[in-house]
């Protein structure tokens, strides 16, 4: 039993060493204020689903991606860049 545990531990250490460049430094990310969890994305998916299912709304497979593109641009502060006719001046 001890040998199995040792073998498992050695395999895990080897895995970590092999993949260390791909494993995020979560402590550094948290200190930098980077959101780590998926809650924000899951919340956005729920919000989009609610908007698509609004009574009387008429969405098609063609216009949903365009709407998401505009919403993403707006939230990223890029809306006027993606919509040149909205630029002032």
TrEMBL record:
This is Transposase. It comes from Phormidesmis priestleyi ULC007.
């Amino acid at each position: 039993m001890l040998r199995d545990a040792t073998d498992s531990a050695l395999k895990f250490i080897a895995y970590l060493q092999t993949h260390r460049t791909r494993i995020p430094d979560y402590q550094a990310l948290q200190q930098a204020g980077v959101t780590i969890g998926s809650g924000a994305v899951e919340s956005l998916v729920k919000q989009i689903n609610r908007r698509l299912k609004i009574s009387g709304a008429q969405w098609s497979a063609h216009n949903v991606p365009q709407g998401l593109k505009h919403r993403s641009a707006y939230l990223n502060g890029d809306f006027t860049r993606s919509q040149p006719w909205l630029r002032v001046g």
